[in-house]
């Protein structure tokens, strides 16, 4: 026989009203009584009916997450952290892979089926922002790709990441350093490039070259192949993401150019297989756990009580030095 709220009330020695308030996380319940109710629920193995709780509280207990792709282990780590953190607060996570505006308008979030929405690295956040504000759905943007102080966001200091990656190469003794950027439309790409240029200027150096790429292995491979065909190689490359870096290394290795003896390579993101790659990739690690947990914290606070002003949280990435970078060879050693 299914255990009811009345059984919990009887077991705890408290009223049904008190039990209901505990189930709905009301702040008016004394801590001693809350503990009695929770212990009774545990003893009886009571699981409140989700539909009943939703009707009573006016909440669904579901948080929506919108993202463009699942083919990225860094984003996957953020999603995992979000899911785990929401579970700690008795929320369920609903995913929507939205690659265009039509898919967003058809998504479940348009019918008030969620209590809030997390946007993960949206390429065109304006569409989402306008619609979510219109429907008064609380939301937070993680890895916001636009300078938009009017919305709650969690961002990474991509400028610092680009600076630290380039400074690492300079400190190793490199002076001929190239950069392959990501899409110019993305703020993260522009900020990483800005950090690259700032580190070089500080050292009194000029870029070997700045190439426009995309966040893909193919992009890195094709650009590195052009350098090889031209006979002019940098001694080091800062790639805007790990996928570009993998393509660069692949192209060089196919031509017998050694990493890092001949060319050093730094990536960005610290994809899960960066450490397993040969040579293991030096990269800039995104603080994925902090991003996911802070996003949930901000959103749940918004759901309870909208703030008077929007909050922007920023985290620093961390340079992870592995095998793909080293000191440049002396000119008398070069045989490329």
Description of the molecule:
- The structure is a single chain.
- By secondary structure, the chain is an alpha/beta fold.
- The protein folds into 3 domains: about 5-55, lambda repressor-like DNA-binding domains (434 Repressor (Amino-terminal Domain), Orthogonal Bundle); about 60-155 and about 285-315, Response regulator (Rossmann fold); about 160-285 and about 320-335, Response regulator (Rossmann fold), CATH 3.40.50.
- The chain has 12 helices and 12 strands.
- A 6-stranded parallel β-sheet has the order 2-1-3-4-5-11, sandwiched between helices. Strands 7-6-8-9 form a 4-stranded parallel β-sheet, with helices on both faces. Strands 10-12 form a two-stranded antiparallel ribbon.
- Strand 8 (about 235-240), helix 11 and strand 9 form a beta-alpha-beta unit.
- Helix 1 crosses helix 3 (about 30-45), helix 5 crosses helix 12 and helix 8 (about 160-170) packs parallel to helix 9.
- The longest helix is centred in the last third of the chain and has 17 residues, at about 290-305.
- It is elongated.
- The relative contact order is 0.12.
CATH homologous superfamily grouping of the largest domain: Response regulator
Uncertain segments: 332-336
Strand content: 15-25%
What is the radius of gyration? 25 Å
The CATH class of the largest domain is identified as Alpha Beta
Give the termini separation.
Answer: 79 Å
Helical residue percent band: 40-55%
């Amino acid at each position: 026989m299914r255990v009811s709220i009345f059984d919990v009330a009887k077991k705890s020695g408290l009223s049904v009203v008190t039990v209901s308030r505990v189930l709905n996380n009301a702040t008016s319940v004394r801590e001693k009584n809350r503990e009695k109710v929770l212990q009774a629920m545990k003893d009886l193995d009571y699981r409140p009916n989700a539909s009943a709780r939703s009707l009573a509280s006016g909440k669904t207990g579901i948080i929506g997450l919108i993202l463009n792709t699942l083919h990225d282990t860094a984003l996957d780590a953020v999603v995992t952290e979000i899911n785990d953190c929401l579970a700690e607060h008795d929320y369920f996570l609903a995913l929507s892979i939205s690659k265009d505006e039509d898919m967003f308008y058809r998504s479940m979030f348009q019918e008030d089926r969620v209590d809030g929405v997390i946007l993960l690295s949206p390429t065109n956040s304006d569409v989402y922002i306008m619609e979510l504000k219109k429907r008064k759905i609380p939301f937070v943007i993680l890895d916001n790709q636009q300078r938009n102080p009017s919305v709650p966001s969690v961002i990474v200091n991509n400028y610092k990441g680009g600076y630290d990656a380039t400074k690492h190469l300079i400190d190793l003794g490199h002076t001929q350093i190239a950069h392959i950027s990501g899409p110019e439309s993305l703020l993260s790409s522009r900020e990483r490039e800005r950090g690259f240029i700032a580190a070089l200027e500080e050292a009194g150096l000029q870029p070997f070259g700045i190439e426009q790429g995309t966040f893909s292995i193919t992009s890195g491979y094709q650009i590195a192949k052009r350098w090889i065909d031209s006979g002019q190689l940098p001694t080091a490359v800062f790639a805007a993401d790990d996928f570009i870096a993998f393509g660069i290394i692949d192209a060089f290795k196919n031509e017998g150019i050694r990493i890092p003896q001949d060319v050093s390579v730094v990536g960005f993101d610290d994809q899960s297989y960066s450490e397993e790659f040969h040579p293991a990739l030096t990269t800039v690690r995104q603080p994925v756990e902090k991003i996911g947990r802070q996003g949930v914290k901000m959103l749940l606070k918004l759901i309870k009580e909208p703030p008077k002003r929007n909050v922007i949280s920023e985290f620093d990435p961390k340079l992870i030095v592995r095998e793909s970078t080293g000191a440049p060879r002396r000119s008398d050693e070069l045989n490329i």
